[in-house]
């Protein structure tokens, strides 16, 4: 192959935006010649690698845009430390069947048991399977809705939160809300009801949600729509943060 032909190939790869192939074409061609790889197999290999790199870049971009406070996966979660978790339910959730069925997921447990970790892991898995996903703290979500309402932009804001295939609402119950905020939260839940999946984390049993939302009827209406099609993972165990504290002190 002449230098001019190779340059032309590289120019076209750059023009087409095939970055991975552009950066590795010399190595690919050298290997193809050395190993006498048939043309069709050679083309299939480089296009397959390019496609995988492009998919990985898209996934990484979506993970950044999703608003996760940290990167968490199922592999990084110590299920042995939390034996109360129903692993059959976890395995079923990992199939993402709940998204196709527009069902909700609730991770319920005391602070520090890994609720947010599992919610993020599920969200990342959803992104890897091309489901639009967004993560937000419950208090921040309600503050955003209140601000939009006061600025006459509520419909627009509700549409934004309602469009995600998976919306993760973290830490329900850590901070109470006022009646207006509870009403706005209900509107969002009603808008997503039976259309898309929402993942919740909470440290409050469902009977305590009336205290969180300051109204029995609104709380009941919210729970009715959340729990109608849902899976609840209840985690009863020690805090990971307490575990790390004990480990650090034992090391000392």
Notes on the structure:
This protein is of the alpha/beta class and about 250 residues long. The protein has twelve helices and five strands. It has helices spanning about 5-15, 20-35, 40-65, 85-95, 95-100, 115-130, 140-150, 155-165, 180-190, 210-215, 215-225, 240-250; strands spanning about 105-110, 135, 165-170, 195-200, 230-235. Strands 2-3-4-1-5 form a five-stranded parallel sheet. The radius of gyration is 24 Å and the shape is elongated. The model has no long low-confidence stretch (mean pLDDT about 90).
Number of strands: 5
Oligomerization: single chain
Over the alpha carbons, how many angstroms does the gyration radius reach?
A: 24 Å
Question: Span from first to last CA?
Answer: 64 Å
In DSSP terms, counting alpha (H) and pi (I) runs of 4 or more, how many helices? 12
Which class do the helix and strand fractions yield?
alpha/beta
Average pLDDT: 92
Strand arrangement in the largest pleated sheet: 2-3-4-1-5
Are there runs of 5+ residues with pLDDT below 50, and where? none
- Beta-strand residue fraction: 5-15%
Shape: elongated
Secondary-structure element sequence?
HHHHHEHEHHEHEHHEH
**Biggest sheet statistics:** 5 strands, parallel
Helix content: 55-70%
């Amino acid at each position: 192959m002449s230098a001019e032909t190779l340059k032309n190939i590289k120019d076209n790869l750059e023009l087409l935006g095939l970055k991975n192939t552009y950066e590795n074409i010399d190595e690919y061609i050298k290997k193809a010649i050395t190993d006498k790889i048939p043309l069709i197999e050679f083309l299939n290999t480089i296009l397959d690698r390019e496609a995988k790199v492009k998919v990985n870049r898209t996934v990484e971009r979506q993970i950044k845009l999703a608003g996760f406070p940290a990167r968490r996966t199922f592999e990084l979660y110590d299920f042995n430390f939390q034996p109360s978790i129903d692993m059959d339910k976890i395995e079923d959730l990992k199939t993402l069947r709940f998204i196709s069925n527009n069902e909700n997921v609730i991770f319920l447990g005391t602070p520090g048991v890994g609720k947010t970790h599992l919610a993020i892991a599920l969200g990342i898995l959803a992104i890897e399977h091309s489901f639009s996903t967004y993560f937000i703290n419950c208090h921040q979500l309600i503050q955003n809705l209140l601000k939009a309402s006061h600025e006459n932009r509520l419909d627009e804001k509700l549409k934004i939160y309602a469009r995600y295939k998976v919306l993760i609402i973290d830490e329900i119950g850590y901070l109470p809300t006022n009646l207006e905020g509870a009403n706005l939260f209900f509107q969002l839940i009603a808008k997503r009801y039976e259309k898309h999946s929402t993942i919740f984390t909470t440290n409050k049993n469902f009977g305590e949600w009336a205290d969180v939302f300051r109204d029995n009827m609104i709380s009941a209406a919210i729970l009715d729509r959340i729990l109608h099609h849902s899976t609840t993972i209840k985690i009863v165990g020690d805090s990971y943060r307490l575990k790390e504290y004990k480990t650090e002190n034992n090391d000392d």
